[in-house]
Amino acid sequence: MTYSFSERGSAQAVEEGRALAPKFDADGLVTCVATDAASGDVLMVAHMNAEALARTIETGKAWYYSRSRRALWRKGESSGHVQRVVEMRIDCDQDAVWIKVEQAGAGACHTGRRSCFYRTVPLKQAGAVKLEFADEKTFDPGKVYGKS
Amino acid sequence: MTYSFSERGSAQAVEEGRALAPKFDADGLVTCVATDAASGDVLMVAHMNAEALARTIETGKAWYYSRSRRALWRKGESSGHVQRVVEMRIDCDQDAVWIKVEQAGAGACHTGRRSCFYRTVPLKQAGAVKLEFADEKTFDPGKVYGKS
Questions:
Q1: Which of A3, A132, A145, B69 has a CA between 20 and 30 Å from the CA of residue B138?
Q2: Mean pLDDT of B94-100
Q3: Helices (H), chain B
Q4: Does B38 touch chain A (CB under 8 A)?
Q5: Average pLDDT over residues B84-103
Q6: Interior CA angle at B23 toward A63 and A117, to 5°?
Q7: How many CB pairs (< 8 A) connect A and B?
Q8: For chain A, what is the radius of gyration of the CA atoms?
Q9: Does the pLDDT at position A1 exceed 70?
Q10: CA A32 from chain center: how many Å?
């Protein structure tokens, strides 16, 4: 796997140019938002290091970097829930990418839901916030992730 | 402004409970994805500290924390391009929030576009990646942001 990104130039060059010059943070990561290409829903927010970003661009499948496991991973490598990238976009200062994906299987979330964002946060309410569940489980994570 | 979030319990409690127990990173931040409530497009990815999150929940308007300026800011405070939050969701491990917003004004991006994600990254191509512009400017940032 070979990859190289452009050096970061001026703000003008980064924002208005055509060179891919990602701004990796102190841990070497950019933020990635994955949305469902069909519904538009946000499925997950994760991180990519340079290699994950390069592999995603080269293969058209989503690769991430796990901060907790300190490891590169291909989405779906244990669950089979691969993400095919339909479109990738990068933001103005190039520290975040947005991928629209076709999500294989019943969902993206390790808890067994289609999206990681299955709870709403009520707004403008007095007192302690109580989350509300908006989405049902769509698969049994014990069966899907229990294989490894 | 007073606010308090729940203590983080077990993974089970964080993922399957109703308590809002955000996982702020070493810099005290969670990631926030703002999408357009009408189109579903990702408008921007930014960060919230505890106060920005609390203010957003309490007011129903988007507040963020700028890492570069090290300051709390209300989206639109200089541009007028306020974001009214239609719905807020939080993810499984509670380190990212998704807000669906009604974006006031002509756009969310300081470069003058509706979304910060105005360039696509071509996939599965040999050689150096050249970004492609997908969105036109919708306002003159010099006029909108030049007032302060």
A1: B69
A2: 98
A3: 11-16, 50-59, 141-145
A4: no
A5: 98
A6: 60
A7: 141
A8: 17
A9: no
A10: 4
Rounded-to-10 torsion of CA B17, A129, B36, B61: -160
More confident position, A1 or B25 = B25
* Residue B54 pLDDT greater than 90, yes or no: yes
Q: Which of A117, A124, A137 to mutate to test the interface with B (most CBs of B within 10 A)?
A: A117
Q: Which helix (H) or strand (E) holds B87?
A: strand B83-90
Does the pLDDT value for residue A66 go beyond 90?
yes
Model pTM greater than 0.90?
yes
Which residues contact residue B102 at a Cβ distance below 8 angstroms, ignoring those fewer than 6 apart? B37, B38, B83, B84, B86
The closest alpha carbon to B36, from B95, B98, B90, belongs to B98
User: Sign of torsion, CA A85 A109 A92 B57?
Assistant: positive
Nearest to A130 by CA among B107, B53, B17: B17
**How many residues appear in chain B?**
148
pLDDT at B145: 85
- Mutation choice for B interface testing from A98, A102, A120, A137 by most B CBs within 10 A: A98
Is the four-CA dihedral B131, A97, A35, B70 of positive or negative sign?
negative
Residue A106 clears pLDDT 70, i.e. is over it? yes
For residue B128, pLDDT beyond 50: yes
Does residue A40 sit at the B interface (CB-CB below 8 Å)? yes
pLDDT at residue B147, as a whole number:
53
Degrees (nearest 5) of the Cα angle B121, A97, A84? 70
Give the pLDDT confidence score for residue B30 in this predicted structure: 98
